[in-house]
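Cross-check.
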Amino acid sequence: MKIIKPTFFIEQELDEDKILKNIERAGRTCYKSENLIDEDSSKRFVLNIIKRGHESVIEHEKITVRIICDRGVTHEIVRHRIASYSQESTRYCNYCNDKFGNELTFIEPCFFSSDSEEDVKNKKIWLDTMAMIEQNYNMLIENGAKPEEARAILPNSLKTEIVVTMNLRSWRHFFKLRTDKSAHPQIREISNMILKEFKAKVPTIFGDL
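Predicted model, tokenized:
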């Protein structure tokens, strides 16, 4: 059994200047104001359309992110549209194989992170449960169950990978919902990590969030 923390990888090189210029070229079509494009105009143009709420223009650009989290979090992620998703399949992945180190991998819940007596007890209950699930999953496979059958006992805490592609407007909507204090702690954890990177790489689009 392996316990890991959630993480993510941006699947493309993010060049803010190129992104902004592409958005400006598309957006100025609406006004036929392409003659106003110069070396420094794209940032001003994009900031202005965001300020005015004309965010459909930023849908012309997209970002793809590989998110490593638990399956409970992905159940919330895939509720977002417009987006494309490709996720690790428990139907076809046999976690008893060497490819997976012959073990299940689980995401450590962020809400058992304190040293309080209650959290220590709860985390032990969680760890014991994950160990039991791994043991029983392996037994099912050894007894001839297919991965698509054995997966019936796999929990939300199981590590999964999901590749998510959203246009920039959809990402902004995603972050507004999933970094809010009312969001589930685990999706808020990974969403804040991704947003921090987006702010660093594409501050014109995400700096106000």
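DSSP finds eight helices and six strands in the chain. The chain has a mean pLDDT of 96. Passed to J.P. for a second look.
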